[in-house]
Amino acid sequence: MTTYTRTGSLIAMMLLGCVASLGAEEEVGLVGSIESIPQVSPLQIKVKTRDGSRLVQCAEETVVVRGKQKVNRDELKRNRHVIVSGRANGDIVLASKMELVDVTEGKIDAIMEVFPLRLSVMTKNGNVHVQLETQTRVMRGKTKIDSGQLRNGDSVRVFGDSSGQLFVAKEIDVEASK
């Protein structure tokens, strides 16, 4: 599971020969499982990631989705896997969106060179066909890698939507080489 941070655009303007900085916002994305949901208001959720646990705060305007559909917050339950988008405020992530996702893991046993890229992943329950989209993040440890670096035999954990014929990947974590 992954925590990633991206510094937003630093907007600079040339005005009378001076550069004016309008600021940068830190966007945070978490991929992990819900560890606990303390009974506090506003809603706060502890999400367990590969890097440890993070506290996520949900405001009234926080959107909760599964696939492309909005779902009720009652769907947020312990051990469910989520992708959280928001911004950091100290140790707390202020969530703008929480997406409930499915998880599958196994070894890549085939890579189909089609667009969009597809993988066959051998899991303990058989083969799962995974489709990558242009926005699918592929991570090896804490490093984002290009999907072209995926290889047969790689151990992967795939987070995404399994409701259709294909498992549509939102993020793929590749086991770091030892």
Summarize this structure briefly.
By secondary structure, this protein is an all-beta fold.
Distance between the termini: 17 Å
Counting DSSP E segments of at least 2 residues, the number of strands comes to 14
Secondary structure tally, helices = 0
Morphology: elongated
Describe what this molecule looks like in 3D:
The chain is mainly beta and 178 residues long. The protein folds into two domains: 3-101, Nucleic acid-binding proteins (OB fold (Dihydrolipoamide Acetyltransferase, E2P), Beta Barrel), CATH 2.40.50.140; 102-174, Beta Barrel (OB fold (Dihydrolipoamide Acetyltransferase, E2P)), CATH 2.40.50.140. The protein has no helices and 14 strands. It has strands at residues 3-7, 12-15, 18-21, 26-36, 44-49, 52-66, 69-70, 81-89, 92-112, 118-123, 126-140, 143-145, 155-161, 167-174. Strands 1, 4, 5, 6, 7, 8, 9, 10, 11, 12, 13 and 14 form a twelve-stranded mixed β-sheet that branches. A two-stranded antiparallel ribbon has the order 2-3.
Question: Which structural traits does this protein have?
Answer:
two-stranded antiparallel sheet, 178 residues, OB fold (Dihydrolipoamide Acetyltransferase, E2P), 65% strand, twelve-stranded mixed sheet, 2 domains, mainly beta, 14 strands, single chain
Topology:
Blueprint: E1 3-7, E2 12-15, E3 18-21, E4 26-36, E5 44-49, E6 52-66, E7 69-70, E8 81-89, E9 92-112, E10 118-123, E11 126-140, E12 143-145, E13 155-161, E14 167-174
Parallel strand pairs: 6-9, 11-14
Antiparallel strand pairs: 1-4, 2-3, 4-5, 4-8, 5-6, 6-7, 8-9, 9-10, 9-13, 10-11, 11-12, 13-14
